[in-house]
Amino acid sequence: MSVLGQTLLWGGFLSGSLATVLNLEKEDAWATIPWPWYIVSVVICIVGIVLLRLGKKSATESTVESTANLAEIEASLVNLIEHTGQLLGQMDELAPSEMTTFIDDVLAPDFQTFAEGRNAITSEKGLQKFADVMTHFSAGERAIHRAWSAAADGYVDEATTCVERAVAMLNDAQEELGST
Amino acid sequence: MSDDKVNQLLRKGEQIRLGPYPEFTWPAVLVGWFLGAIIAISISYAALKLGFSIEGSELAAILGWGILRGLMGRTSIVENNINQTIASAVNGASSGIMFSVPALFILSNKPGLESVADFNVPLMIFACITGAFIGLAFVIPLRKQMIDFQRLPYPSGIAVATILKSPGAGIRKSAYLFGAALLSGAVYLVVSGIFDIHEIDLGAIINRAFTPEGQETLANILPSRYSLVFYASLMTVGVGFLSGKGGFWFGAGGFICYWFLSPCLSLWGSEEVKVLVESPAGIRGEIYKPTGIGMLIGAAMGGIIMAFPLIRSAVTSMRKAGKDGRDDSAHKDELPIRLLGIAILLGAILLVFLAQQSAPDMTWGMAAAMALLGTLWIWIAGVIVAECIGRTNWSPLSGMTLIAVTILIVIANSGLDKPQTIVSSLVVGAAICLAISQASDMMLDLKSGYLVGGVPKRQQMAQFVGAWLGPCIVIGLMFVLHWGAQSETPKQTASSPAAATQPATEAETAQAPAVSEPVDNTPKDGFGSEKLPAPQADALASVIEGIVEGDVPTYRYVAGGGLGFLLAVSGLGGIGVMVALGFYMPFYIVLTYTIGCVLRIITDKTAGLRFSEQVGIPIAAGLIVGEALVGVVITMIKIFWPSTATAQETGQIWQVLQSTVLQIF
């Protein structure tokens, strides 16, 4: 269904585009576009979109793939919470340059994995849950970015405060993700 | 941190600072205003002379780095971020105003339109500031959706963040950034600055290679309709790299035009179209660009409908975060939506007043219609540019302003004479242009802010702090240049803007047709003249003349709009705007951009995401920064040493160097 939907969508779009650009302006400007041709193309496009959406719906219902993606991002969030907590515990021991290295080497890959797979939340749990999780996740990620900047500039107190805030935000994101 | 630990780290050579982390400070504001003013003046002047403007954020970040860190001994990445936000907000006026307002001066040279240059200057400045504030109030609530949720790349935002973070990024990353900047700058200097090469026509090279020796006419292996021309710009490759696979559909739009539609038109188009299709610039201007504008509008409408549930969820989520007793910084870090709503309402009311004051015969009803449609358009266009610049780094500012001016002229034309129609439409149109320009700049800055950990609320306030200053500086500069250019012409005695544009008396105008020689309306001085060509405003002036005469390709906008709408609601995630932008932009830019996208996809697959993050992104950011900075330098050389520019055009490198050295000393 998806392949047919894509074919009709793009077939209709290309045909409609050709109808739109086929002529230079005629004396009756509105007659420049061959409207019957254009409308048929639009209808084909709409049929394609309907098929695509139906295909997407049935794909969402077979939850194997999206559940796997959700498990992957849940795992990355668990890692993030663990490693951010670890960073917070070591803040008194680490030099600022070691903090930035820790963030780049240990935390960044999991932030990226979560961000790449974030759409699984929408498929599995809906748009509102996606927004709730991402609100906390993004605030946590931004706090880590701020911790990096503060550490790079040597402001160790600010870096500690930011890591604390990031831990809280990521825990909130996990709580949201876990709740139904 | 304990004192012992601090001392231990200090002994190791680590920099340790205790106390609050400076962010929104007076030094950041003052340096931001200062740099913004300088950049706005430079870039506005360049826009008037050469017809293009340059994004000022990278320049502001680097100069801010030098001034704040180097001269003032400041030590905060997020403070420099506020500085660049304010500076680029001031500079945001340069592209918006230079594209729109000089059109009034240019049009005043046409018979019957002499009075259009006699507009109310404080009213124009006030309209621009109002527009800028409305644009910001509309776009700020989109931050959560576009940056936090959709995670649009905003390539220039990434580049600025990379510059801001460079002091702490370690030697290797900084080396990638500055090495790539040097390479990109050097290549741009040699290729564009000295040899004046801006495009590489691979199609022509292939045709030449396949032409048998001795044959005069070139082989036609790749006809010109395929437009296999690359933009000679490493910056564009860098932008494509930062966009990654997300930029695919932008390229697809261009390929659909020039590799599918153009060949089809060469087979089945009318005779005129068959001729036109062999000129990629011609077919773009006449057909693809208007279709692209229509598609952008349709895609934006569809995009707004599709994004509405997400925007609503974002707002609900923020409110929930503020109420449920958790750490509510996710909620507190944003400017309150209610406050922004009030700002929009007040701005719209003010715009009604400004529109009413812009022309003597303007009725309140007509003013209200212009202001309300203008405000609605700011919202739609704000969404379009925020998404376009987020996905591709290009903003369709001119197309969006054109539509705004068209809508306004249609309203004003129903009850006002031609000069009043033009003046009132351009007063409100300039406000809209500023709004769009500020909206795109705000989103770029918020992306940089996200990456360095800036507090969004502070950055949003910083943008307001900078946005009012740009219109005052740029409109002031505009008059200085206009009067200056006129005072150099012996016969002119200009003492005011109205006098400066030499309004012809009715008798003089009436006599004009009696003169047997053709009437040359090209301005001899001021805007539109050789001294101040203002190419963008000149183009807008021509279009406005067409619109006033009813010459608008509405049919093409409608047809394109329908297709854009369908792509936007297809559920394929933002492809409508991307494909539309591919129709709108010149194909040589699309092709070079695609190289960057392909490189990123290959790098991600072969070397891994981490390599792209640690090596690819600093290099790509460097490519953007180097070319942007050298571009500013070359522009200044062309303006202040025009003889050098002439020499460059002839490719006489030694003459260029000699001339430059002689003039410097």
Protein traits:
heterodimer; A: 180 residues; mainly alpha; Four Helix Bundle (Hemerythrin (Met), subunit A); 7 helices; 84% helix; elongated; B: 665 residues; 30 helices; globular
Largest sheet of chain B: 2 strands, antiparallel
Helical residue percent band of chain A:
over 70%
Helix content of chain B: over 70%
Q: What is the number of helical segments of chain B per DSSP (H or I, 4+ residues)? A: 30
Quaternary assembly? heterodimer
> Residue-averaged pLDDT of chain A, rounded?
89
Instruction: Give the tally of β-strands of chain A.
Output: 0
**Low-confidence blocks of residues of chain A:** none
Give Rg of chain B in angstroms.
26 Å
CATH superfamily name of the largest domain in chain A? IL-4 antagonist (De novo design) like domain
User: From the helix content, strand content and strand pairing of chain A, which structural class follows?
Assistant: mainly alpha
> What percent strand of chain A?
under 5%
N- and C-termini, Cα separation of chain B: 56 Å
Runs of chain B with pLDDT <50, length 5+? Answer: 490-519, 646-651
**Share in β-strands of chain B:** under 5%
CATH architecture descriptor of the largest domain in chain A: Up-down Bundle
